[in-house]
Structures are given as C-alpha cells and as structure tokens.
Design a protein that fits this description.
Layout (H helix, E strand, L loop, with lengths): L2 H13 L2 E2 H10 L5 H4 L12 H4 L1 H17 L6 E6 L5 H10 L3 H6 E6 L3 H10 L8 E3 L10 E6 L8 E6 L2 E9 L5 E9 L17 E4 L1 H17 L1 E10 L9 E4 L2 E3 L9 E3 L2 E2 H10 L3 E2 L3 E2 H8 L1 H9 L4 H15 L4 H4 E7 L13
Parallel strand pairs: 2-3, 2-5, 3-4, 5-10, 10-14
Antiparallel strand pairs: 1-7, 6-7, 6-9, 7-8, 10-17, 11-12, 11-13, 15-17, 16-17
Length: 362
C-alpha cells in the first residue's frame, strides 16, 4: 500500500471511478506523492533507462539532425532551441557538444527547457553547467517566446495521460478505475455509452473486450507545435516508443525497478506510460498547418545519421572492454527487438522540406 493509493481509493469511494487519464495524472504529477515530483526515475538506480543514458552517441546524433534542420531553416540569426521533458539534461548536453561543431548554431540559439519539476530542473542545471548555452526553464511550451525554433522531445509524449475505450455488448464505453467489493482498485467500464462517432469506423465491428486508446493531451500539444511551426518556421523531432498506425490494444504499463509492474499496484512509486500513436500525433501537427515527414524507426534514424561511424570513432584506441561496451550500446539503441524498432522518430516542419536523415513528405 502506498500513501497515494489510499488517497485514490478514498477519492473513488467519495466521488466515483476515475478515467485512465485522471489516474495517470494523479500518479505521475501529484505535488506531494507523484512519481515525477518525488522520485529519481532514471538510470540503474531508478526505474528505467532512456536512450541518452545508454550512450552519448544518441544525443550527439540528435544534435547532428538539429544542425541539418538549422541549415534547412536558412541559418536564422536567432532561434529558440527547445526540449520537452529534458530528464537529467543528458540528451541536451550531448546535443550541444555536437552543435559546437557549428558555432553559428550556438550563437543563434536560446535554450528553453520545458520542465515542471523543481527537482529535475536542479538536476538539468547541474548537467548543463559550463555548457555553451545557459538554460531558461519554462513551465510549458506556450511559455517559449515566438520566433523560429528547433524542438526535441524524447520520451515525452508516452507519459501524457491517455483515455481508453472498451467494447461491451451494447457499444463502447470509457474504461475506468473503480473499487471492487473488497476495496481494491480494478478496471471497469463506465456507465455512459460513447457516441459512435467517437470510434473510428474501421473499429465499429470490433469484438467484445477490444480496447482503443486515444491521446488528446499529446495530440493537443502536437497541434500547438504544428501551428507555431507554421507561423514562425522551424522543425520539431519527436522520439518515443509507439506504433505507426492506429490499432486496438491496451498499452498502459507501469515500470518499477526496471521491471514491469501492475499498473494499479504502486501508484506514485512506478512510472506509468502508454505507447504513442504516431499516426494521430502527425495528424494533429498537420491540423496545426505543419508538414509531417515520413517517420523512421529509431534504428533507421540512428543508422542513417552515422551511428556505426560514430561508434568506430569512439572506439578507436580504446580497450577491448570499452569497445565491447560501445558495441553493446549500438545494439541496444538500434537493433530490432530492442530500442531500434520499438521507438519511432517523427519530424515536423513548418514548410515543405526535408533534412538529414529524413525523407521528403513528397
């Protein structure tokens, strides 16, 4: 039992069941007992390891893509460099090291880190201490000043609240979290029937028990980013684990101590995420007026960006043990069955263009 679990049960007993989105928001962002407000999630002593923590090569190659985007933008004399959910600041530190190869990029950039956690802000400031750019912390993307921008979001959208809808005999209902007869948290179907228009037509005849997920919070941010890109110009790169086309399935998951956990077992003590629907994310950005380039798997993105060549440079002259560690990192980041195909990379631009390593939208 956790403190937050007691509070969630009391709320449900008093006010009724919670949507999946409400539950995720409480578990992750509660000011006193939420996962991201109270815990250190990253690294071997946390609950999960992100790609920037696997190897410096990941952030460096994201940096190379940003340099390419900067050139396509016409090398503006001033632009906003933005990261959503910067974690420990590791990705941005590696990105800036790569960006230093083009001093004009750093001279033109103003660094904006969108982070609401004071604890993580402190960590990011320490990681970036002595870097070429001093971070300005923002509470949301809306606080980033107008103007052209380059935005990076790595494992940001997966932690945003989702909704789930479940097919029952008389139609579709929102999946919720309530209490069973013993007072335990359980999943169930809400009482209100969803209108048919809320479900994509291709899933209208799905069998009973089918679950469909929607991501209104993620889509709203993508649409806002798309609108800003359309108005001011620039590029956004989203990296996350997810699926390329809308499909049924329950992807809500909890991670605790590097192992999968019951999503209802340890509220506030486990990371809650859901796979990102990249088709919906791209469509939202396009609704904002932007252009979406064909997405890549993370493996394709890294290999096209020169992962093997960078690994060779890093390994030159190193001990056999160090070279093995670099090879292991390449495998973990890019191989099918690991991060390579589970994670996807989507680039959004303000106008029709392509930049390395992405292809044109046609």
């Amino acid at each position: 039992m956790t403190i937050l679990k007691d509070r969630i049960k009391a709320r449900i007993a008093s006010e009724g069941p919670l949507s999946i989105a409400q539950y995720m928001t409480i578990c992750l962002a509660d000011p006193e007992a939420g996962y991201y407000t109270t815990r250190e999630p990253f690294g071997k002593h946390g609950d999960f390891t992100t790609a920037p923590e696997v190897s410096q090569m990941f952030g460096e190659l994201i940096g190379a893509a940003c340099l390419s985007a900067y050139a396509v933008m016409g090398a503006p004399q001033r632009f906003e460099l933005v990261e959503l959910g910067p974690g420990r600041g590791t990705l941005m530190s590696d990105l800036l090291r790569m960006a230093a190869l083009r001093p004009a990029f750093l001279n033109a950039a103003r660094l904006n880190l969108v982070e609401i956690s004071p604890r993580l802000r402190d960590m990011q400031a320490k990681t970036l201490a002595g870097s070429k750019l001093e971070p300005i912390f923002r509470d949301s993307f809306r606080d980033v000043p107008d103007g052209p921008f380059i935005l990076v979001a790595n494992e940001f959208f997966d932690a945003l609240p989702i909704h789930q809808h479940v097919k029952i005999p008389d139609g579709w209902r929102e999946r919720q979290i309530g209490l069973d007869e013993n007072g335990n948290l359980v999943f169930g179907a809400g009482t209100a029937r969803l209108p048919d228009k809320a479900i994509p037509p291709e899933f209208a005849k799905s069998p009973e028990g089918t679950i469909l997920e929607t991501q209104p919070a993620a889509n709203a941010i993508a649409e806002e980013i798309g609108a800003r890109l359309t108005k001011h110009g620039g590029v956004a790169v989203f990296i996350d684990y997810g699926y390329l086309t809308t499909a049924p399935g329950d992807t809500l998951q909890a991670l605790r101590r590097h192992s999968y956990d019951d999503a209802l077992a340890h509220p506030g003590e486990a990371d809650l995420t859901a796979h990102v629907n990249f088709e919906a994310l791209a469509a939202a950005a396009v609704r904002g007026g932007a252009k979406a380039l064909p997405p890549l798997t993370q493996g394709e993105f890294l290999l096209r960006s020169g992962l093997l060549e960078r690994a060779g440079v890093l390994g030159a002259g190193k001990t056999p043990q160090e070279q093995d560690a670099i090879r292991d990192a390449v495998e973990r980041l890019a191989a099918p069955g690991q991060m390579g195909d589970l994670f996807k990379v989507l680039a959004i631009t303000g106008k029709k263009c392509a930049f390395s390593p992405f292809d044109s939208a046609g």
